[in-house]
Design goal:
This protein has 307 residues and is an alpha+beta fold. It has 3 domains: 4-170, Deoxyuridine 5'-Triphosphate Nucleotidohydrolase, Chain A (Distorted Sandwich); 186-218, no CATH class; 251-306. The chain has helices spanning 23-26, 37-43, 167-170, 180-202, 215-218, 251-255, 260-275, 280-288, 294-306; strands spanning 4-6, 15-17, 47-50, 55-59, 68-72, 90-94, 98-100, 105-110, 120-122, 125-127, 137-142, 149-151, 156-164. The strands form 4 sheets. A 5-stranded antiparallel sheet has the order 2-3-13-8-10. Strands 5-4-12 form a 3-stranded antiparallel sheet, with no helix packed on it. A 3-stranded antiparallel sheet has the order 6-11-9, with no helix packed on it. β4 (55-59) and β5 (68-72) form a beta hairpin. α7 (260-275) packs antiparallel against α8, α7 (260-275) packs across α9 (294-306) and α8 (280-288) crosses α9 (294-306). The longest helix is centred in the middle third of the chain and has 23 residues, at 180-202. The radius of gyration is 23 Å and the shape is globular.
Length: 307
């Protein structure tokens, strides 16, 4: 599936796959924060626009746009600097690109995960980018007044990744008692964790790799089985290809010949099926009921399940 950033003449955004590293994680003892696989995956779970110039910003606590002061570094291009247009302590970065997602996919936009900045917080949004011809802005809201804050050149200012539209509403949240195999594995894990902590307290491990159990990191359950075949211990997202690079040949996408509207409806139907645990054959049948031929329905289901 294609994720395209369309550029107007003169736009040269600094755009990269998000990095898994964080300064504060680097500074933890023996870098132990990187043992948390969910942190690593979240850090790299998208792409980032980077800041073009060093810039200092200041809010005096007022609610007008003029109550934010912006002090750029010498030589900065004005169009690349943040601005104050909304008031209420909101700082705005313009994003130079119109991003298009496949039919049925939105874009989650916000601050880079597991980062923090004193005195200001990113504001998150979800945008329908499969049809919109508009750019969007990345906004931050000041939390502290009368303090100069710095955005450095090259640091991420906007983080984004695609999300399937309608998937959230297709879930059926409910409570259920823990029993059967899940209860047995949970008890085994809890006992194993307690025993591991007691043993490491008595006999501190000689190496960092022995200081954690690594079962989740390795993708194995308490019976040493691998419940899923596509467990991820690292994300390697591709770079945005330069203008003029031929689109990558995607045999799945090439098979889908339905209209954008029908494909979007099919993807939403597949998302609902995935949420309730439907199999591929059942979802293919549901997609065919929308009017797509069987090869197209199968391609849509494969594309959604592989996303």
């Amino acid at each position: 599936m294609d994720l395209v950033c369309y550029l107007h003449p003169g736009w040269e955004p600094l755009l990269r796959p998000a990095e898994a590293t964080r300064d504060w994680m680097d500074k933890t003892s023996e870098k132990f924060a990187y043992r948390c696989l969910p942190l690593n995956i979240a850090n790299a779970h998208g792409w980032e626009f980077l800041n073009a110039h060093d810039v200092q910003v200041y809010w005096n606590g007022g609610q007008d746009a003029k109550d934010i002061i912006i002090r750029p570094a010498p030589g900065s291009k004005p169009e690349h600097l943040p601005v104050s247009i909304f008031g209420h302590g909101v700082l705005t970065f313009h994003i130079f690109g119109v991003i298009r997602t496949p039919p049925g996919w939105n874009l989650f936009v916000g601050g880079s995960p597991n980062t923090g900045r004193d005195g200001i917080v990113p504001l998150n949004g979800v945008i329908e980018t499969d049809w919109s011809p508009y750019t969007f802005t990345m906004n931050y809201r000041f939390l502290r007044r009368n303090v100069w804050l710095t955005f450095k050149q090259g640091e991420p200012i906007c983080f984004f990744f695609p999300v399937l539209r309608g998937a959230m509403e297709s879930f059926r949240p409910r409570f259920a008692p823990m029993e059967g195999e899940l209860l047995a594995q949970f008890k085994a894990w809890s006992a194993s964790r307690d025993a591991f902590r007691e043993e490491t307290a008595r006999n501190p491990p000689a190496t960092a790799s022995e200081q954690w159990q690594k079962r989740y990191y390795r993708g194995i359950d308490m019976r040493d089985a691998e419940p899923i075949a596509d467990h991820k211990a690292r994300l390697r997202l591709p770079e945005f290809a330069p203008i003029g690079t031929p689109p990558a040949t995607d045999p799945v996408a090439l098979q889908i010949t339905g209209s954008a509207a029908s494909i979007g409806s099919a993807l939403r139907r597949v998302a609902q099926g995935l949420a309730r645990g439907a199999g591929a054959a059942e979802m293919v049948a549901e997609v065919m009921s929308l009017g797509l031929a069987q090869p197209d329905a199968e391609a849509v289901v494969r594309a959604a399940m592989d996303a």
